[in-house]
Amino acid sequence: MEKTCFVIMGFKTKKIPNTNIKVNLDDTYDYLIKPALIKSGVISVFSGDCHAYRCDEIFTTQAINETFIKNLYTADIVIADITALNQNAIYELGMRHAMKPKSTIIMCDKETLRNNNFFDLTFNPHITYDSGCQKNLDEIKRIENILLKTIETCKNSGEDYIDSPVFSYGVYKNNIVKMHKQEDSYKDSLRSLINEGNYFIETELYEEAESIYKQIIEKSNCLDNDIICSYILAMYKKELSFENLSQTLDVLKKYIKLDTTTCENALGIAASINLKLFSIKKEEKFLYSAIEYYRKGSYYESGNLYCAKNYCSTLLKIYQVENNLSVLKEYYYTAVHNAKFFLSHSQVIKRKSAQYDDTWFMSNQNDLFFIAFNFATSPYKIIYNSTRQKNTIECGRLILEDDMHMLQKKIGKI
């Protein structure tokens, strides 16, 4: 009889707690986990797609917590990736240990274990992988071999085999309750919706993207910061009117506490919205808010220098609201100093290299070089990966050059 499997883990790109290291959990799933599961012969708990192991691959009309609870219990084998120490994944792992005596496999990136102290989970075996080598054939084969052997052990285990600490300590007797499998399919799954929403954003079809992400949030109750940020990005980009931008900022504040968040994407988007509001109303409060949000976002910079570069470039806009020469000089030299600092810091940022992200990273470095040293020629050649990326980078550079020229003119640099 075929064995079923369910995978619990975060998705998209997440930071490892207590580090600036980002891990693409989708790559972990797509390259290290899912191919091994297919090769092992295990099937999904969902009858609609035998290879839909992760919950975001499945569309369901049930509340997402009900789906998780049923699948955690129904699956013969559960794989829990705790790399990001996501609260939901940790909670679900605990639920699985409380539900079933065996066949729960824990996976974790080596940097998570190195930078975070565990207690309860240290007594359970982990499959440790290197997220920096997710697409490396040697790492893929290594993890595949371990997973295949572990899954085979789970398949062949008897009633006396226990890997749950709850059952190993005999806290209570195992009472099996039969449950029916869900009848779902990959069509309209969370994963397919996310992919569709991302496509619409990158092709600048923002109304369509907003609709997709709104559906994800409302129907799946998915409040992941990356999903919220994509939703807000699409919402404000669809119409650059004062009314829409103000409403979008209110929606962002509803989902994310901007005063306390460490989500650099949320802070960067809040800054961008305020900058657009400033361009419409010319009220200095919006410019200062944009500067502050970019400044705070640069504290948590870990990937593409987005907030860092925009903090420096937005400082240069001070000439639009200020005439005092001393103030203008202070903002100009603050921008130059910070641009030099961020360029130096960029050499030690721990980040994952991918063509799309590299384009943002190099273009932001080009702009920082321009601010810091007034380079006429950019050091890095840029290859664009989407319409949005090309338009954003090229338009942003023209605005930056104009702001630099105007401020330098006012302070007597040219």
Overall description:
With 414 residues, the chain is of the alpha/beta class. The chain has three domains: 4-168, 3-Layer(aba) Sandwich (Rossmann fold); 188-283, Serine Threonine Protein Phosphatase 5, Tetratricopeptide repeat (Alpha Horseshoe), CATH 1.25.40; 301-414, no CATH class. Helix content is 57%, strand content 7%. It has helices at residues 25-40, 64-74, 87-99, 110-115, 137-156, 165-168, 190-202, 206-220, 225-237, 242-255, 264-281, 284-299, 306-315, 325-346, 355-373, 387-410, and strands at residues 4-8, 13-15, 22-24, 43-44, 77-81, 104-109, 126-129. A five-stranded parallel beta sheet has the order 4-1-5-6-7, with helices on both faces. Helix 2 (64-74) crosses helix 3 (87-99) and helix 9 (225-237) packs parallel to helix 11. It is elongated, with a radius of gyration of 24 Å.
Short summary:
The chain has helices spanning 25-40, 64-74, 87-99, 110-115, 137-156, 165-168, 190-202, 206-220, 225-237, 242-255, 264-281, 284-299, 306-315, 325-346, 355-373, 387-410, and strands at residues 4-8, 13-15, 22-24, 43-44, 77-81, 104-109, 126-129.
